[in-house]
Specification:
Layout: E1 5-8, E2 12-15, E3 18-28, E4 32-39, E5 45-53, H1 56-71, E6 82-88, E7 91-99, H2 106-115, H3 122-141, E8 144-145, E9 154-156, E10 162-164, E11 171-172, E12 175-178, H4 180-193, E13 209-212, H5 215-230, H6 236-240, H7 245-248, H8 263-272, H9 283-289, H10 299-306
Antiparallel strand pairs: 1-2, 2-3, 3-4, 4-5, 5-7, 6-7, 8-11, 9-10, 12-13
Helix pairs in contact: 3-5, 3-9, 8-10
Length: about 325
């Protein structure tokens, strides 16, 4: 982790004795800012994420996000170039220097398609889905879950390779809930950290005695797939109208009759978005189904044969 940082009058910063020029602001959230910076020596662009740490808990959460990035070296998970904590004026900030992916998020690409009245080709949908699955597989095999998968947290490079970002909500994949107090704690945490229209059903009303596992990501993955097909999330309008998303996710996902994608792709979506987590597949199965080596027309029969046969053996 970087130990030195200075903000210079020429609009530059120095991390680990490497200097970067500030270029422009990229994004702003409730507790973080993202700036575009340029390396003075290498001329490469980077995204500098600055997280405001208001207390010790916030600092620990930022530390965890840094550690999550450092844990993985995978083409479908955003890497970490450098990081450090900065204390200025009694305030603490975590600084994460990340690769800059010019094309932006999956959501920005989908918005452009929608504005032009176009749609995403099925072949490209399967390609992106497979890349997302590959990144999730690496996360799940390390014993973690992303917990906030959505189109704005998936970047696309120039070759449409998806890269998972924003690892701040990641935690252990399997969480054993023992009692109503623990259930309420997890439910409150999910309300703060897991985007409502992509949140798995079991996180809205957490049972007093249960196990929350990595299949929360599978539900969110289904929402992302739906968004690639329909150019909006399955529960975006429910939320925007002020209706209950918690109630809506208890019912099977509804695919509009106007959907022109193959029956196989539609069946794959239905097989992922299963409200009961015990009947929901794991990432290995979804990755297999989304393989580019299997034409979409062949997915349908395989989904029919296996959809209702998921059990604890699928959890790895």
């Amino acid at each position: 982790m970087g130990q030195t940082l200075c903000i210079c009058s020429r609009g530059s910063i120095t991390i680990d004795n490497k200097r970067y020029y500030f270029v422009q602001k990229l994004d702003e959230g409730g507790f973080s800012y993202v700036d575009l910076v340029e390396g003075v020596k290498d001329g490469h662009f980077y995204a500098l994420k600055r997280i405001l740490c208001h207390d010790r808990e916030g600092r620990q959460e930022a530390q965890t996000e840094m550690e999550m990035h450092q844990m993985f070296s995978h083409p479908n998970i955003l890497s970490l170039v450098a990081c450090t904590f900065v204390d200025r004026g009694g305030k603490s900030e975590a600084w994460l220097l990340l690769p800059y992916i010019r094309k932006g998020s999956l959501w920005s690409v989908l918005e452009k398609l929608r504005d032009k009245g176009n749609r995403m080709p099925e072949k490209l949908i399967l390609q992106i889905l497979r890349g997302i699955c590959s990144g999730l597989k690496a996360i799940h095999e390390h014993g973690y879950a992303h917990r906030d998968l959505k189109p704005t947290n998936v970047l696309l490079d120039e070759d449409d390779r998806p890269v998972l970002m924003d690892l701040g909500s990641m935690n252990r994949a399997r969480i054993e809930v023992r009692g109503s107090r623990e259930a309420m704690t997890i439910q409150d945490w999910a309300a703060q950290r897991c985007t409502i229209s992509y949140r798995a059903p079991e996180l809205f009303n957490v049972e007093s005695h249960c196990i929350i596992d990595e299949r929360t990501d599978i539900w969110s993955l289904g929402c992302v797939l739906y968004c690639m097909m329909m150019l909006e999330g399955p529960y975006d309008m429910v939320f925007q109208k002020g209706d209950s998303v918690a109630l809506a996710v208890q019912n099977p996902v509804t695919i509009p009759q106007s959907c022109s994608y193959s029956e196989g792709l539609q069946m794959l979506l239905s097989s992922i978005m299963v409200s009961n987590p015990q009947e929901r597949p794991n990432i290995h199965w979804v990755l297999d189904q989304s393989s580019q080596g299997s034409p979409a027309s062949r997915h349908v029969e395989r989904c029919r044969l296996t959809r209702y046969h998921f059990n604890s053996n699928w959890i790895r």
